[in-house]
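RECORD TYPE: inverse folding
INPUT: structure tokens
STRUCTURE:
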């Protein structure tokens, strides 16, 4: 009798772990898919926002359920070798993105460098997503 109760208890605990693991995996996959969708949309918006971008690299995406904001760290590399790194938010419907949050002692200088490059990039851009996959944006 005790053996049967113990086996039933272990079965319930193992089932709980299995369900918890499946839910966690599903949530993680949903987060990865959402980040990829936002990063793809943001890459297109940045191409429409700044001229002569050579490469866009995303890292450290963050999403809050309430009020539902999404932001990411962006590193833009331009054809002349200048690199700018900042955080920005993005909404999926946006076709341009001029939002930037710089930090550090040179934030005004960095912000001015970015503002001086407003325009449109006609060339292909290498995009490196936060999950380290790479694509060429045409």
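DESIGNED SEQUENCE:
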């Amino acid at each position: 009798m005790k053996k049967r109760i113990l086996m039933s208890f272990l079965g319930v605990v193992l089932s709980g772990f299995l369900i918890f693991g499946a839910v966690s995996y599903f949530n993680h996959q949903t987060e990865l898919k959402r980040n990829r969708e936002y990063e793809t949309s943001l890459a297109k918006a940045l191409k429409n926002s700044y001229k002569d971008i050579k490469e866009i690299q995303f890292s450290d995406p963050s999403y809050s359920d309430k009020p539902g904001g999404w932001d990411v760290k962006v590193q833009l590399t331009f054809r002349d070798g200048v690199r700018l790194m900042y955080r920005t938010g993005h909404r999926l419907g946006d076709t341009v993105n001029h939002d930037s949050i710089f930090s550090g002692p040179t934030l005004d200088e960095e912000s001015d460098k970015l503002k001086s490059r407003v325009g449109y990039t006609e060339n292909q851009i290498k995009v490196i997503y936060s999950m380290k996959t790479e694509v060429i944006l045409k």
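NOTES: The chain has a mean pLDDT of 92.
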